[in-house]
């Protein structure tokens, strides 16, 4: 007797059949869907029409309430009230086809439906889902998400497609996120007018899911969950069980918020999670000083959202707001917090509200006395490639691979000394470059040296300063390379300590690493050519008494010219630039390679071309789906400078 397969396995098998088939996508999809829709719903090729005579083009797949007495003809014209989902089909998706599919779905969503009636057993939604479905895509799935976001900005949200499904690659759909929380479940776009009186305090996030061969499972689960509320009480498979075995990774895309008109609009850049600092809260205390709640006003498009933590209920606060605000007031209760709907208020309104609360109660209100500590690390921000790529990029990736805060702290404990050594080395290299540039300029202007007879008198030599900075550079660079990066990569599961050992041990370690990580092995072989020279220079300084030679000078046509000292056959400035470039590239690339190896299944890293990097944060890497995403970055040694890479 054959074993009974789970609903997830059955849906997965149906998806695999669709992906493998080369003909009849529409018939194949409808047959697959009808296997799981039960008796209440049916998937058919049809047009959709509303009571006002508006009608769509033919959709290859429309999920609608089934009519037991009707024999399904080849083509139907279905009443809009009976339609739960329209699916636009293409064998292969590209930018032009996505735009066409978008407009066709927008047309279906514009159809008028009979308003819902309140009562037990009545539908909770009459929204028509819109799904763009394709076997494959000729563009990366992130490009589809960018096109979708661009089209969304040109259309009202009730016309947006709910999901893009690329059967062999992944799924794009919306997720919900409340303030102070991580993105959570799926979000179904409401029908036209549903948010006219309700402006919920949530972010709607465009999520890219690298579901690969589980893409059909994700789509079917999404549809089933919608059908449950479209017609309550009907018998349908458990949508949550359809997701068993599906990869859980998701790449977060653009975000949207409701404004005071109830429209979804893009989140302003200044309020994105990676750059927004919330205001200090107001503390609500009882007469004994016990804190009952902490209240913040979060700026929200053209209004604000009241965010309250603690046991104090938020509803009494609404009584102290203007009448027009009270009429809009509602609350979402989350674990540990209460959040108002989007209200037409600002910080001054909240202050006045709290002042009235104090006057008319025995409660006390004060602003949280604690302060954020902003420690200045550099005289530059994330628009600097060094800061963006070695600070911001690494910390963003670390959040993806370490979801547990304790693991992040362990990572940070190893990352901090490594990056501090890198910063110290860079400071020294920049100081040397500035010393040399200023000295050459002063010599050209005759400020710091003069010719007296046959003698050259240098009145402001820079030898001591250069020696001091070279010592700092060699020590810091060695510490970054030999201690900092080695400890960081060891924590990430890669042992590179043999790079700093004698040749025989180096070769043995290289060969062992080659079995598990040939890319890193090949990279370290090339690294050895310059890392050995760096360590020799540092050891000569520390143990053999080597010091940087002095500057030398000569006179030419009345002008005194300076010649830089050399290190390892290179002028000082050439040596510093070469070593700083190599160490910075090594730090970025080896760390990124080790992080990439720990990404969740379905995710990889891609390299952003220099011309496409954002000016305010020119990150070099971003996460991409491993299947169907942008070209996957692999670790390959190069001799380009840090700025060119």
Describe this structure in words.
There is one protein chain. The protein has 3 domains: 7-168 and 212-243; 282-367, Gyrase A, domain 2, CATH 3.30.1360; 385-625, no CATH class. α1 (7-20) runs antiparallel to α2, α3 (95-109) packs across α4 (141-152) and α11 runs parallel beside α14 (572-596). It is built from 14 helices and 24 strands. It starts with 6 loop residues before the first helix and ends in a 20-residue tail after the last strand. The protein has helices spanning 7-20, 25-34, 95-109, 141-152, 215-230, 315-318, 323-326, 347-359, 385-401, 405-444, 463-491, 503-516, 518-543, 572-596; strands at 41-49, 59-65, 76-79, 83-93, 129-137, 163-166, 170-177, 203-209, 251-258, 264-266, 282-285, 291-300, 303-310, 331-334, 337-340, 364-367, 449-452, 455-458, 552-556, 559-563, 566-567, 570-571, 603-607, 621-625. The protein has a 10-stranded mixed sheet with strand order 3-1-2-4-5-6-7-8-9-10, with helices on both faces. The protein is of the alpha+beta class. It is globular.
């Amino acid at each position: 007797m054959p074993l009974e397969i789970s609903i997830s396995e059955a849906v997965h098998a149906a998806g695999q059949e669709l992906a493998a088939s080369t003909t009849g996508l529409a018939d194949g999809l409808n047959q697959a869907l009808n296997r799981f829709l039960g008796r209440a719903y049916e998937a058919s090729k049809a047009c959709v029409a509303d009571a006002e005579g508006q009608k769509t083009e033919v959709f290859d797949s429309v999920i609608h309430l089934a009519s037991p007495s009707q024999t399904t003809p080849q083509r139907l014209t279905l009443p809009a009230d009976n339609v739960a989902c329209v699916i636009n089909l293409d064998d292969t998706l590209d930018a032009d086809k996505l735009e066409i599919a978008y407009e066709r779905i927008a047309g279906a969503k514009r159809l008028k439906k009979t308003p819902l009636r309140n009562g037990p057993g009545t539908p909770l939604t009459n929204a028509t889902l819109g799904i763009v479905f394709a076997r494959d895509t000729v563009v990366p799935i992130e490009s589809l998400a960018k096109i979708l976001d661009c089209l969304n900005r040109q259309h009202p949200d009730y016309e947006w497609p709910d999901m893009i499904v690329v059967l062999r690659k992944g799924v794009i759909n919306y997720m919900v996120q409340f303030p102070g929380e991580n993105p959570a479940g799926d979000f179904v776009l409401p029908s036209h007018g549903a948010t006219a009186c309700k402006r919920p305090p949530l972010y709607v996030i465009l999520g890219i899911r690298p579901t690969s061969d589980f893409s059909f499972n994700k789509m079917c689960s999404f549809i089933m969950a919608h059908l449950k509320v479209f017609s309550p009480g009907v018998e349908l498979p458990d949508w949550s069980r359809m997701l068993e075995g599906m990869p859980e990774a998701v790449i977060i895309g653009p975000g949207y918020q409701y404004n005071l008109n109830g429209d979804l609009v893009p989140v302003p850049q200044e309020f994105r999670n990676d750059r927004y600092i919330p205001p200090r809260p107001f503390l609500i205390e009882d007469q004994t000083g016990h804190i009952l709640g902490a209240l913040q006003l979060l700026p929200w498009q053209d209004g604000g959202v009241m965010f309250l933590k603690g046991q104090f209920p938020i509803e009494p606060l609404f009584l102290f707001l203007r009448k027009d605000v009270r009429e809009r007031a509602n609350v979402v209760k989350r674990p540990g917090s209460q959040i108002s709907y989007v209200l037409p208020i600002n910080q001054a309104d909240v202050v006045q509200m709290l002042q009235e609360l104090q006057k008319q109660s025995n409660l006390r209100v004060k602003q949280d006395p604690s302060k954020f500590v902003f420690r200045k690390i550099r005289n530059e921000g994330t628009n600097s490639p060094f800061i963006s790529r070695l600070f911001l990029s690494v910390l963003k990736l670390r959040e993806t691979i370490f979801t547990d805060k304790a693991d992040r702290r362990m990572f940070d404990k190893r990352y901090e000394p490594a990056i501090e050594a890198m910063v110290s080395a860079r400071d020294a290299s920049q100081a040397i470059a500035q010393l040399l540039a200023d000295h050459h300029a002063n010599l050209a202007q005759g400020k710091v040296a003069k010719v007296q007879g046959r003698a050259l008198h240098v009145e402001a030599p820079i030898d001591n300063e250069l020696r001091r900075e070279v010592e700092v550079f060699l020590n810091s660079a060695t510490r970054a390379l030999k201690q900092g990066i080695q400890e960081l990569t060891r924590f990430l599961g890669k042992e590179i300590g043999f790079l700093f050992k004698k040749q025989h041990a180096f070769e043995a370690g290289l060969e062992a690493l080659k079995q598990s990580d040939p890319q890193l092995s090949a990279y370290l072989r090339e690294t050895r050519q310059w890392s050995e020279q760096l360590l020799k220079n540092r050891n000569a300084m520390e143990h053999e008494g080597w010091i940087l030679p002095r500057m030398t000078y000569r006179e030419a046509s009345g002008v005194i010219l300076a010649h830089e000292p050399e290190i390892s056959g290179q002028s000082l400035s050439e040596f510093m630039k070469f070593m700083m470039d190599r160490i910075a590239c090594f730090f970025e690339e080896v760390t990124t390679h080790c992080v990439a190896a720990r990404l969740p299944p379905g995710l990889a890293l891609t390299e952003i071309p220099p011309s496409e990097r954002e000016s305010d944060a020119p990150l070099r890497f971003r996460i991409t789906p491993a299947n169907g995403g942008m070209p996957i970055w692999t670790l390959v040694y190069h001799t380009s400078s840090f700025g060119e890479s």
